[in-house]
Design brief:
The model is unreliable at 6-31 (pLDDT under 50). Strand 3 and strand 4 form a beta hairpin. The termini are far apart. With 161 residues, the protein is α+β, with helices and mostly antiparallel strands. It has a single domain, classed as Peptide methionine sulfoxide reductase (Metal Binding Protein, Guanine Nucleotide Exchange Factor, Chain A, Beta Complex). The chain is built from 3 helices and 9 strands, in the order αααβββββββββ. The relative contact order is 0.21.
């Protein structure tokens, strides 16, 4: 089985079964400070249960459920938590994984950290301003970067150009 297919299947299974995220609130972000903050109660009041699980507990939405996956209109994708512009539609492509995918982020938009869950090491990406979990970055994307920013649509809002 190809690595992308294995990872996609593992994440989809984990998201469906509740394994993704393993319910570790703020995992990895406790020592970090972000310029835009909210209390846990404020996050829970503004987000759906799924959005909270993905953005604040680093969970994963089910593959092929985000309407943003097949959206290719011109515009920018913003963080749902703080409205920071993160990705341009110019860098979006169809990865076939079921999640919105981009080959690069906007300058100074995201932060990254190592993620050792799901029996592998991956690069997790989050909003650099509020710390909301966005998804993961893989090395199987298209030119010119060779990167695939595989994102949860529930972490994003789209603003047409």
């Amino acid at each position: 089985m190809q690595r992308r297919a294995f990872i996609t299947a593992a994440i989809a299974l984990a998201g469906a079964g509740g394994l993704a995220g393993a319910r570790w609130t703020g995992r990895g972000h406790a020592a970090e400070s972000f310029e835009f903050t909210r209390t846990e109660a404020e996050w829970k009041a503004m987000l759906t249960d799924l959005e909270y699980h993905v953005m604040r507990e680093e969970g994963t939405e089910r593959a092929f459920t985000s309407p943003l996956d097949k959206l290719y209109d011109p515009g920018l994708y913003h963080c749902k938590g703080c409205d920071l512009a993160l990705y341009s539609s110019e860098h979006k492509y169809d990865s076939g994984t079921g999640w919105p995918s981009f080959w690069k982020a906007l300058p100074d938009a995201i932060g990254t950290k190592e993620d050792n869950t799901l029996f592998t090491t991956r690069t997790e990406c989050h909003c650099r301003r509020c710390g909301s979990h966005l998804g993961h970055i893989f090395d199987d994307g298209p030119d010119p970067t060779g990167k695939r920013h595989c994102l949860n649509g529930v972490s994003l809002t789209f603003k047409a150009a």
